[in-house]
Amino acid sequence: MAHSSLPPQIRPAVRVLWEYHDLHHRLEPTDVGIGLGSHDLGVATRAAQLYLGGTVPLIVFTGANAPTTIERFPRGEAVAYREHALGLGVPDEVILVEPEARNTGENITFTRALLHKHRVEPRSVTLVSRPYQQRRAYATCRKLWPEVEVVQCASLPLALDDYVAGIGDPDRVVNMLVGDTQRIEVYAEKGFAIEQPMPDDVREAFRQLVDAGYTSRLI
C-alpha cells in the first residue's frame, strides 16, 4: 500500500525543487489559457477556475497520452480535461481540444497551430500545469512562441504536502520533480527552451534525490 506523505529524510530537498519550479506569478487577464496535459486533473480544475474567474476567455486543453496516463485517460489527456472542465461549469464553446501533443514542446507548437486555425493570435497566454512543470513550460513557450508578449504560469495553489497527498503517490511526484529539474538545463542545451538560472541549493537538492534513487524520470 502506497504512503501518501513524503519520507522525512528527503522532504527538505523535495521542498527546494518544489519552490524552484513554481514561479509564483501574479496572475493578470490573458488572451487564452492553455491546460498542459498530464496525469493531474488539477490542471483542468485550475483552468476552469481561471475561466470562471475572468482571467481567461478561452481555454485550450492539449495532450494525447504518455505511458503514465494511458490507463487513467484512455481517450487522451486533453479529452479528459475538457470533460472535467465541462463538469465544473465551463461552457463547451470556450474550450478547444488539441489531442495529439506528446510532450511540452508539442503542447506549445500544436496549440499555436490550432489557435491560428481558429484565427486567434494571442499576445498573452496563461500556461496551466502541475506546480512543478511551471518553469519548464515557461522556458519552452518563450523559446517556441516568441511573439507572445506575456507568458504567465498557473497551477492549483496547493502546499507541497497537500499536493503529494492529493496525488497519493509521493515517489511519482519526487521522480517527476527530479526529471523536470534535469530537463531545465538539458532542454535549453538542445534548443528546446530558453536558459533558466539554477541556484546551487537546487543543484544540491537534485543531487541528493538522484543519490537517493529517484531516477525513473531522468533522460
From TrEMBL:
Residues 43-151 form the DUF218 domain. InterPro entries: Cell_Envelope_Assoc, DUF218, Rossmann-like_a/b/a_fold. It comes from the Bacteria. It holds the Pfam family DUF218. One of its GO terms (cellular component) is plasma membrane. Gene3D superfamilies: HUPs. This is YdcF family protein. It comes from Kineosporia babensis.
